[in-house]
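Need a sequence for this fold. Nothing fancy.
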């Protein structure tokens, strides 16, 4: 297979090989694909909505108190048999 990469992508590959982390282009690409396959899928519409919420200022600092609320809500859902949504599993 032959592919043509944009110059910025080729520069990343070259930099990784020059650093000694990888021996060749194939090693870099294979590692990148493995890393990509480990990233959970998030639907684009969820990302768009999250950004819109942030733009509207609908965010909270992630404090211990907020974590406690999240844990309590998750525990309550578990007690009530509410299934875990697929988009939050990983």
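Here you go.
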């Amino acid at each position: 297979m032959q592919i043509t990469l944009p110059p910025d992508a080729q520069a990343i590959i070259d930099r990784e090989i020059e650093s000694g982390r990888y021996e060749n282009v194939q090693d870099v690409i294979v590692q990148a694909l493995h890393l990509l396959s480990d990233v959970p899928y998030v639907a684009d519409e969820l990302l768009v909505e999250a950004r819109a919420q942030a733009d509207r200022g609908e965010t909270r600092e992630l404090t211990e108190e907020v974590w406690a609320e999240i844990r309590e809500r998750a525990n309550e859902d578990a007690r009530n048999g509410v299934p875990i949504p697929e988009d939050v599993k990983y």
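For context: Residues 44-79 form one domain.
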